[in-house]
């Protein structure tokens, strides 16, 4: 039950409601209303407790999204397959249909010639943890925010940046988040708009803003 499965193994399991993405199983159930979503979430909770294997459940109007993974293997195992079957059965019993085409997951990729040099800055500014299974990837410890991975490239002059990250934090956490980012090799580009936002950069010149609600009217 604890062996990491390949993509073909997952495909062969014939989980019609589920799709494999980024080392996890994902499903999207169209509940139609919040009360039905709550009932499905309760069924999922009961099945998870029985198996002692707990998914990420996102309850919204009008759907429930579920993500299954085995953290001890950083991938999908038979435990996830079994729980996926139980969740699908619970949804069917409630008359809730799955919409596999609605599942998606996105991550950020940052080009760098030396990810070890800039990774501490991005861990600090985002509040992320190192992925123990992938040296070029950091993750939100709560699993709610997208992964950031570092793609190798040749050294080059700093380009005009086409996008940057706005990282929203509680107003009383901004000072510490900024201090952590600076201590991790970052630089302060501008604090002219503080406390609305501060512009920071890693040692490659990639920028991120720490943002709060303050001074926004």
Can I get a quick summary?
By secondary structure, the protein is of the alpha+beta class.
How does this structure look, described?
By secondary structure, this protein is an alpha+beta fold. The chain folds into two domains: 7-102, Transcriptional coactivator/pterin dehydratase (Gyrase A, domain 2); 108-211, 2,3-Dihydroxybiphenyl 1,2-Dioxygenase, domain 1, CATH 3.10.180. The chain is built from five helices and 13 strands. The protein has helices at 7-12, 34-51, 78-93, 115-126, 174-183, and strands at residues 19-21, 24-30, 56-60, 63-68, 97-98, 108-112, 129-130, 137-139, 148-152, 165-168, 187-190, 197-201, 207-211. The strands form three sheets. Strands 1, 2, 3, 4 and 5 form a five-stranded antiparallel beta sheet that branches. It has a four-stranded mixed beta sheet with strand order 6-9-8-7, covered by helices on one side. The chain has a four-stranded mixed beta sheet with strand order 10-13-12-11, covered by helices on one side. A hairpin with a 6-residue loop joins strand 11 and strand 12. Helix 2 runs antiparallel to helix 3 (78-93). It is globular. The model has no long low-confidence stretch (mean pLDDT 93).
């Amino acid at each position: 039950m604890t062996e990491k499965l390949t993509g073909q193994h997952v495909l062969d399991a014939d989980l019609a409601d589920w799709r494999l993405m980024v080392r996890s199983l994902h499903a999207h159930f169209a509940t139609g209303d919040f009360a039905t979503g709550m009932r499905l979430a309760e069924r999922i909770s009961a099945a998870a407790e029985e198996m002692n294997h707990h998914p990420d459940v996102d309850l919204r109007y009008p759907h429930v999204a579920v993500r299954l993974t085995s953290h001890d293997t950083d991938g999908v195992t038979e435990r996830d397959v079994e729980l996926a079957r139980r969740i699908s059965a619970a949804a069917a019993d409630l008359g809730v249909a799955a919409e596999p085409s609605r599942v998606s997951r996105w991550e950020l990729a940052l080009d760098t010639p030396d990810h070890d040099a800039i990774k501490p800055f991005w861990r600090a500014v985002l509040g992320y943890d190192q992925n123990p299974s992938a040296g070029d990837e950091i993750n939100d410890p709560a699993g709610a925010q997208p992964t950031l991975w570092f793609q190798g490239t040749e050294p080059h002059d700093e380009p005009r940046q086409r996008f940057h990250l706005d990282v929203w934090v509680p107003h009383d956490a901004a000072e510490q988040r900024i201090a952590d980012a600076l201590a991790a090799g970052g630089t302060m580009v501008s604090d002219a708009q503080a406390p609305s936002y501060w512009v920071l950069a890693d040692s490659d010149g990639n920028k991120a803003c720490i943002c709060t609600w303050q001074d926004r009217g």
